[in-house]
Specification:
Elements lengths: L1 H56 L2 H8 L2 H6 L6 H24 L3 H44 L7 H14 L1
Length: 174
């Protein structure tokens, strides 16, 4: 019985020793990943704020309020700030890049591949937003043109707003 106890004890000690050695061998990677994570999150936040301020400096919001009609959306309770949106995209792009670096340091190939796919998808979202923005700008211009045309024609003046709105949304949808 004494020999069997020693064997179990040796087996448990060997298993714990092996686990401990694996933990110790992974510790530098984990510390590097934690450092990269904190530095990356800080830089992502900093770059997001910097880009937001740069876009605010260009006064893109006031341009969009005039051309797209964001002031009308604000009256309805929806307030959109282009500077905040662009800053948010930049921040999250760099957060995802940080996650890619952390997953790569920790040698998590599947997670690295997933975050790379997400990072490569972000430009598609940005292009989609730009196309939608162009649709809003063109739709707003067409709406003004149609309203002026209807008011100048023999059509009833009260139908100008409805026809103009229809023309605007037709451009945006298509």
């Amino acid at each position: 019985m004494q020999g069997q106890f020693a064997t179990w004890q040796n087996a448990i000690l060997a298993a714990l020793s092996g686990i401990w050695m694996k933990i110790i061998s992974k510790l530098p990677d984990v510390l590097a990943a934690v450092i990269v994570l904190f530095v990356g999150m800080f830089l992502a936040s900093l770059l997001g704020r910097l880009v937001r301020r740069m876009v605010e400096f260009t006064r893109l919001d006031s341009f969009l309020q005039k051309t797209v009609g964001l002031s009308r959306m604000k009256d309805r309770g929806m307030e959109i700030h282009a500077a905040a949106l662009v800053g948010w995209f930049v921040k999250w792009f760099f957060i995802i890049v940080t996650f890619i670096a952390v997953a790569d340091i920790l040698k998590w190939a599947q997670l690295t591949s997933f975050f790379e796919a997400v990072a490569l998808y972000i430009p598609n979202v940005i292009i989609t937003v730009l196309i939608l923005l162009a649709g809003f700008i063109l739709g707003g211009g067409l709406q003004d043109l149609v309203v002026r045309g209807v008011k100048a024609s023999t059509l009833p003046a009260n139908s100008a707003g409805m026809i103009g709105t229809f023309a605007r949304w037709a451009v945006i949808v298509f």
